[in-house]
Amino acid sequence: MNTKFSYIDLIRRRSSRRSYKPEVLSDKIQEQINQIIVTIPAGPFGTDSSFRLIRKSIAADQKIKLGTYGFISGAQYFIVGKTVSGTEAFIDFGYRMEWIILKLTGLELGTCWLGGTFTRSEFARLVNLQENEVIPAITPVGHATEKRSIRDRLIRLGAGSKNRKPWLEIFFNGDFNHPSDNKQIGDYSTVLEMVRLAPSASNKQPWRVVQSDNACHFYLQRTAGYSRMFPAIDLQQVDIGIAMGHFELSARELQLSGHWQIADPGIVHPEGTEYILSWVFE
Question: Which pTM does this prediction carry?
Answer without folding.
Answer: 0.90
